[in-house]
Design goal:
mainly alpha, 6 helices, two-stranded antiparallel ribbon, 5 strands
């Protein structure tokens, strides 16, 4: 079993012989080697959403366990209890001649008029929909706890408009935006260290992070939003920059617009 301790000025490598046993408090670690930390910092980066260490899955795991249990019960019930069981009461031994298959006709002997009459019936199978309803209930609870849009779990049954999609995904989008704000400083530190390892000295504050838009926007809705913003006085280039377009893409857009306008002007002159 090996252990490495990181310090800003050195690295310590330890070795312990556990003989197949789990590591415990009484495990003795022997220092094998010490190396210089040539980067001068500890290469550990902590991405956390709150000051107190609490996983986003803490409240979701019990609900997920309940869903897993119901799914297992559903499969067991489908295997052993969903099929209807048939029964026969008769004074004759008819079990060997009865087959359960499509279009099969059972020839059951009549009673002798004195004892129990010959009767046939069936036991109802397990109601699988009871498990399905339970799974749907806990899935809806899981969606609320994790702020996951319900259409990620359930079929909506019809196409959803862009505005409705934004509304349904807004809790998850806000959660993602909050995580981006919290994780961005740590990402900058991590990338700064990676650049240092690659031989480049770049400060974390000089690193810009570009994330994909957290909200789902339909092309038609996006075009309508751009049109409305343009009518309100916001230049198209500004909108595209806020959407994450790079400077190279914006320069190419300007060149394409200039070429298009030049071609249109040339066509008008030739037409005249």
């Amino acid at each position: 079993m090996k252990l490495t301790l990181y310090y800003p000025e050195r690295l310590e490598y330890y070795l312990a012989s556990t003989d197949g046993r789990a590591v415990s408090d009484d495990t003795r670690w022997m220092l094998e080697e010490t190396a210089v930390n040539e980067y001068g910092e500890i290469p550990v980066f902590h991405f956390r959403s709150t000051r107190r260490l609490k996983s986003d899955l803490k409240d979701a795991i019990p609900v997920q366990i309940a869903i897993n249990k119901l799914v297992n019960d559903l499969m067991v019930a489908a295997e052993f209890g969903a099929f209807k069981q048939r029964w026969v009461i008769s004074q004759s031994d008819v079990l060997d001649g009865l087959k359960n298959s499509p279009n099969e006709i059972w020839q059951l002997p009549a009673g002798d008029g004195m004892g129990q009459d010959t009767r046939a019936g069936e036991f109802q199978g397990s109601d699988l929909m009871a498990y399905v309803r339970g799974i749907d209930h806990f899935s809806a609870s899981l969606a609320s706890i994790t702020r996951t849009p319900k259409h990620f779990f359930f079929k909506t049954g019809a196409s959803v408009s862009g505005e409705a999609l934004l509304t349904m995904e807004s809790p998850l989008a806000r959660k993602a935006e909050k995580r981006i704000d919290l994780f961005t400083p740590e990402w900058r530190k991590a990338f700064s260290f990676l650049l240092c390892v690659a031989g480049e000295n770049v400060r974390p504050s000089d690193i810009d992070l570009v994330f994909e838009p957290v909200a789902s926007l339909q092309p038609l809705t996006r075009a309508q939003v751009r049109t409305q913003n343009k009518a309100a006085g916001i230049p198209l280039v500004t909108q595209l920059r806020l959407e994450g377009w790079t400077d190279e893409q914006l320069e190419q857009l300007k060149m394409d617009v200039a070429d298009e306008q030049s071609a249109m002007f040339t066509g008008m002159v030739i037409g005249e």
